[in-house]
Amino acid sequence: MINKENKMIVKSKVAVLAFVVPFLFNCINAFSQTTEKPVEVKIMLDKPVGDMYPMWAWFGYDEPNYTYMKDGKKLLTELAALSPTPVYVRAHSLLVSGDGVAALKWGSTNAYTEDAKGNPIYNWRIIDSIFDTYIKRGMKPLAQIGFMPQALSTHPEPYKHSWKPGDPYSDILTGWAYPPKDYNKWGELVYQWVKHSVERYGKKEVESWYWEVWNEPNGYWKGTMDEYFKLYDYSADAVKRALPTAKIGGLNIAGTRSENSQKWTNAFLQHCISGTNYATGKKGAPLDAFLFHAKGNPKLIDGVVRMDMSPQLKDISTGFRIASSYPEVKNLPIIIGESDPEGCAACGMATNPQNAYRNGTMYSSYTAASFARKYLLADKYNVNFLGAVSWSFEFENQPWFYGFRDLATNGVDKPVLNVFRMFGKMSGKRVTVQSDRMTPLESIVENSVRGEQSEIGALASVDRKTAGIMLWNYHDLDQLGAAEPVRVSISGIKARKVTLTHYTIDSQHSNSYEVWKKMGSPQNPTTAQIITLEKAGQLETVGNPQKLDVKAGSLVVDIVLPRQAVSLLKLDW
Length: 573
Description:
The chain is an alpha/beta fold and about 575 residues long. The chain is about 30% helix and about 25% strand.
């Protein structure tokens, strides 16, 4: 006869088996998908290679008015929570004339107008609402000084563009892209803006920001190179007059690796070092940070998206190399003002099918693999790498999962955002990693990942009582493949016991897009469906945290990594 106590024991064992048996079955089934031996990844926590600084905690977007809208505020709150240090935010069009109504690749603040006699009228209401949104969340502006107010433009009409996805990119270059008709008025506008910012937020706060002049002057500027240098000089002089300790930089060139962009970049740096300043007549111009852009180049090949990391990494390599070649520049903070798999965030997959990668795990695995290389390139050139701006935010009141390059759609986080959540769990020192299948730096810079096999790579960090190991299974071709066993051998653990938490992003975890497709891809999801999608957009774990014994400072962890998946093994002790 079974008594009450025995019944409870039986029920407890059944509950444990109900959890453990499916978990073991799934692991065995996944391992059985391949007859190959596990990929060997070695993590050496006692062999540091550099700091695990949060250069990933920088974000930007074209449409500044999204900042204070419903989904914009929600996403900024989430971004602010990612990092233990302040997240920096960059936005275009902060000085553009208009009514403050957002549109694709358009924004306005109406900060500057003139009366009938041509006297300046300053209005900081919309700019304040943008910066207030950042400051309230502990974020910092990477404040872009641009673009040209209509009243100052040498070519004021047409001014507001009506660009839409599928239109020529050049259609956006209207009156806001031209030089000022009066550089003294432009300089006074910048001076008044910085002065107002100090009055509103305090000297100490504004000292922690970065200011930068314009965007991609080799594309977004309808003036000459010398006219851009003149704009920079007047802007930098104005910033420093308002706050001598403010930090300002440039030039956010596009296509850094190209011959023309290198010509622009070298001429700009030489101007700042030894040229004649247009505003002061003195030698050189203030330069507190060096900025440039880096973009990849996906294509649609036989109906399949093929990513290409090489152009982006070559842009970064070129920018770092140029910076390191100037004694006056090599120690300055370097910011990659836009760093993305390709160029146009507002070009969805309906009009640009090569951008179909953006909704799913291809974007997240590309992000993990490419950011790891940014650290390595900074190590190679020994530069002061501060941040890489992911030009990816959200698009208010647009179709669900339209294929924009965004971090969230209609308030629901996409898989790529969870990579940044993983980065936020890594701190301390980066450590030595080895993998049988990680592409060497020189090879991935030149050729991306084009072989028969995908890349299984790793980035690892260790802090006083924690370690983080990020692993990815990446290939340029946007195709799914069999899950692969990976054996992670960790050495140099300074503890006898650790708690292991396994986070992952794949087709089954941390993936709102797959859940949305299983719902039937609704463009008008119900409230209950939205709640489900919001939950699916968060970073998920595989099972529950486990307590493991460490022997002689070492630990072996076996995982299964599907193609395009990203995992984070978090150790705490």
